[in-house]
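pinning this so it doesn't scroll away 📌
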Amino acid sequence: MSPLATTPDPPYVAVIFTSLRTAHDDAGYVAAATRMEELAAEIPGFLGIDSARSPDGVGITVSYWLDDDAVAAWRTHPEHLETQARGRQEWYDRFELRVARVERVRSYRSSS
């Protein structure tokens, strides 16, 4: 499996979640993040996810969705809403959520 999300030809929607973690490093965070990725994959219209976190706690997760209806289904999923509340209480110092329409994609892959 590729470490980068494989998406279809545009257009589609990208939800960009940029966060700064609190100093509270709870193993529950990793389990919750794993569960959220599993749950998102069950939503019709989920296309994939890319995620990275720096050692200083800044993270960027981009999830890709077929359309706005798929994003809305994810945004309002009860288990996702519960985990969001827990994130505000325990894991995040701050975050930004941005939603964008992907219009173009350029790719590169080395031959090695």
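📌 and the second one:
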Amino acid sequence: MNNVIIEVQDLKKSFGGFLAVENLNLKINRGEVFGFLGPNGAGKTTSINMMVGLLRPSSGQVLIDGREVQEIEKGTIGICPQELVLWDYLTCRESLMLMGDMYEVPGAKLKKRVDKLLDDLFLTEKANTVVSQLSGGMKRRLNLALALIHEPEIVVLDEPSEGLDPQSRRVLWNYIRSLRDDEGKTVILTTHLMDEADRLSDRVAIIDHGKLLRLDTPSNLKKETGEGDVVEMIISDPGKNQEFINSVKKLEGIYGVVEVNSQINIRARDAVGKLPLIMDELKHFGLRVVDLSVRQNTLEDVFIDLTGTGLRE
């Protein structure tokens, strides 16, 4: 069996004079969580919509198991959109049964599938509660269940954690992992949350302004940006940021210094050990620290390194 389940070839989409996606080429492997990481408006959702056949590309093609996306059976893909698509006056169980009927899931199998999804997504106690009375996190989990009722081979999740509290996000992340690990499904995940992409994705495609900037495993992408930790600083006079940055860059063991939204990010090996040298430079300019933290390298640092701007700008 071919390990590649989706192949995207020279995909392009224009809306009038606006080029939303430009010459996208990639392959997605069977049974992996594949992350699209980028800021809102980067072209992630447009790319996904073309890949699953919801949007016709201006040029290029998408192959799923070697066949044109328009030719595959409708049940091959399950799509969980960013916007909630729910029936407010149906209960959770009724919603799932209705969606299962639409996909022509056999009756006995459908009932078992509904019970399992309610249990897996911690909705059993709310099975007979109408959707309008659910919390935001419960609605989002039900939205996911509806996309999975017919047991699709490929699951597409568009910004699945949008608006979720930390507890609901943890439940969702664990379930996404189980789709890959326990059910062998291929999961395509679009997100602007670096932590989500890092924790869930086997491979990450970083996209911005409709272009694929880099595609690799999260660990390889972070290694590519450079070793070491990151010191995040806000200094007392942002007007002197560039002058301070130019000075810090000359220090031994400093791998990179960038300014993001008036904050200075310094990447260095043994960053804590470098702090006295950095503070000496600060004093030299008559400046003081307003805020300071030290953290490990992240996918957001990769994005900044590629584009010079922050992921959420």
